[in-house]
Design brief:
mainly alpha, Growth Hormone, Chain: A, 2 domains, five-stranded mixed β-sheet, two-stranded antiparallel ribbon, 5% strand
């Protein structure tokens, strides 16, 4: 192999001698990523193989400065979002409390804050509309980023639109506007539309932008300043970034506690102003991030070519090819040329067809998350209404959903620093499919708990099975709601973080934002289903929906476990296939890379 020249101040052998290493030898079979060359790794970082994971000490890479800022952006953006949406349901559903002009509960009175008084069904329909749009718009935001603008520019469009959204909610909450009654709904609707655009453009691109800041494209070996060679595990590093990204989401969700109490004690104008103030941290952090980001050049979205490939695959007897698992092979350039198609008419490569196959396969996998989302969000506003029918002793009924965030904040560090390391220590295999299964089961159990609580509310309410609109609450404590929110939160820590990881890992480079948006789109489908069953969410029928979701959730948990039992092996094979392609491309380059191994003879660990 010819050695690729690396510009260094000192020859590798001289570095070896200066650091006191006794040996300087060349290892065959490795490649180096030369852009990360330094005084301890003079030829760069070695691309690790499978055996190295069991030979060297495994570590995760430290987050870059840009990655930390992106996590702060997510925290502030989610804080402003949940701070707004956390009080939106009561703002729409409940009427103005007696004697109030701002929506607050007057001193000496009990009850919950309110403003427009449109009722449960209208409130559920409007808030579900926001949930639906906030997960549909990312499809466009992801496509725009992959195809034309890049992730950063697309995110910034969403950031500026978000300012308008928060301003509209503040207008809707001003006392003169609230006093007009239903006409105050107009700025709320426009606020929902602009907030959905803001969320869609940011959410589709922020996590892919974060994970792109991970410096290495694969697992690597690195010599530390002490001379030890360590194995930097890319999957574990990506998992940690994803988990702390999701952790920041739920820290931000705590703002809804402040806005909930602001609405009840001061008025809705303050509960919508606080999220806007928090939102300015998004702008500041994004402007600070820009100089530290890895450069990105939009490669053109995979969507255009993918649709052409699918159109080709649907020609002829495609049903027979589906049965024989040859559906995508029909679009391979080699097969098309064998059928007489001119090569200049083929606009894609065989590897791209494989990428499209993986992307479409993921859509089937993501469909399971539709059921998880329905169980997780508690059938729209029904959980909030359930809490409102119980004794809360002055605590706002929309306060309890904050326990979802509290449990996530506690659970993620526990999983990352204790649970997963202990499983690894005892060599217990806890694969991605196991995580999703466990998450589904937690959500199913949570729905069953809600069904039982709803039954007890009906049994103890002065109005019997018409408890939701009853003036007197059930003597049951509304604190029982934290059981559901806690179980769902634990389920999210397993399901969502794994789903994000799968979406990013399996997506091709020119489709990561779009694939992430497709994963989020399942929440839009869940919202649409919630919207469709809104008419059935009324007394005395609120037990059946909870029980039904619990049963379907448990069924999907086992179905996913069976169908994707070998998911980890499939992903590993896909990664190996991509790596083989990279090696093939590298072998066609005029320069070959020679890897050098520096080892300290007195060290007990294997050295490069």
């Amino acid at each position: 192999m010819r050695e690729e020249k690396v510009s260094l101040e000192m020859d590798p052998e001289e570095i070896c001698k200066e650091q006191g290493f006794d040996e300087y030898e060349t290892l065959q079979g490795y490649e180096y990523i030369t852009e990360y060359a330094d005084e301890h790794n003079p030829h760069g970082l070695a691309i690790a193989n499978t055996e190295d994971k069991f030979t060297y000490r495994n570590i995760t890479a430290r987050p870059t400065w840009a990655a930390m800022l992106i996590i702060i952006v997510e925290f502030a953006e989610r804080a402003s979002y949940y701070g707004t949406t956390g009080v939106l349901n009561n703002f729409i559903m409940r009427p103005l409390p007696l004697g109030s002009k701002t929506g607050k509960v007057m001193p000496g009175h009990i009850g919950n804050a309110g403003a427009l008084g449109l009722g449960l069904q209208d409130a559920n329909a409007i808030t579900t509309l926001l949930e639906f749009l906030a997960h549909v718009v990312p499809l466009f935001g992801g496509y725009l980023a992959d195809d034309r603008l890049g992730k950063f520019k697309t995110i910034m469009i969403g950031v500026w639109v978000g300012i308008l959204a928060h301003f509209l909610f503040i207008i809707a909450a001003l006392p003169p506007v609230i006093a007009k009654g239903q006409p105050a709904l107009a700025p709320v609707i426009f606020g929902i539309l602009t907030l959905a655009i803001c969320t869609g453009f940011i959410k589709a691109n922020l996590l892919p932008l974060l994970l792109e800041q991970f410096p290495y494209r694969t697992n690597v070996l690195k010599r530390t300043s002490s001379g030890e060679v360590v194995y930097i595990d890319r999957d574990s590093s990506i998992q940690r970034l994803t988990m702390f990204y999701y952790w920041s989401v739920d820290i931000g969700a705590f703002l809804s506690i402040a806005t909930s109490y602001s609405a009840k004690r001061v008025g809705y104008w303050l509960s919508f102003l606080v999220p806007m103030i928090m939102y300015f941290f998004v702008i500041i952090a994004m402007l600070l991030i820009k100089p530290h980001l890895k450069p990105e050049i939009p490669q053109g979205s995979l969507l255009k070519k993918a649709l052409l490939v699918v159109k080709t695959c649907l020609k002829g007897n495609f049903i027979k090819r589906l049965r024989h698992k040859q559906f995508w092979a029909y679009a391979f350039p080699s097969n098309m040329e064998a059928r007489g198609v001119a090569s200049e008419k083929i606009k894609w490569t065989q590897e791209e067809v494989k990428d499209y196959r993986i992307t479409f396969t993921q859509c089937i996998l993501f469909a399971y998350f539709v059921i998880f989302n329905i169980a997780d969000v508690g059938l729209g506003s029904t959980l909030t209404a359930q809490a409102g029918a119980m004794s809360s002793k002055g605590i706002p009924n929309d306060f309890f959903n904050n326990f979802n965030a509290i449990v996530v904040i506690v659970t993620i560090p526990f999983l990352d620093y204790i649970f997963y390391p202990q499983l690894s220590k005892f060599k217990i295999s806890f694969k991605r499919v196991h995580k999703v299964f466990v998450g589904f089961m937690f959500a199913a159990i949570a729905s069953m708990v809600s069904a039982i609580i709803q039954w007890k509310v009906y049994e103890t309410s002065p109005c019997g099975y018409y408890a939701t609109t009853c003036d007197e609450p059930s003597p049951l404590s509304a604190w029982l709601e934290i059981i559901n929110y806690g179980l769902c939160a634990i389920g999210e820590c397993f399901c969502y973080t794994t789903g994000y990881e799968i979406a990013y890992t399996r997506a091709p480079d020119n489709g990561k934002s779009l694939v992430m948006a497709i994963f989020m789109f399942n929440a839009a489908i869940s919202s649409a289903i919630n919207e469709g069953i809104t008419g059935a969410l009324y007394d005395p029928n609120l037990i059946k929906p909870f029980a039904g979701v619990a049963g379907v959730g448990a069924f999907c948990a086992f179905a996913f476990l069976i169908q994707y039992w070998n998911l980890d092996e499939t992903i590993e094979e896909e990664e190996r296939e991509r790596e083989r392609l990279k090696q093939k491309q590298n072998s066609e380059m005029p320069l070959e890379v020679e890897l050098m191994d520096l080892s300290c003879g007195s060290s007990s660990s294997k050295q490069l």
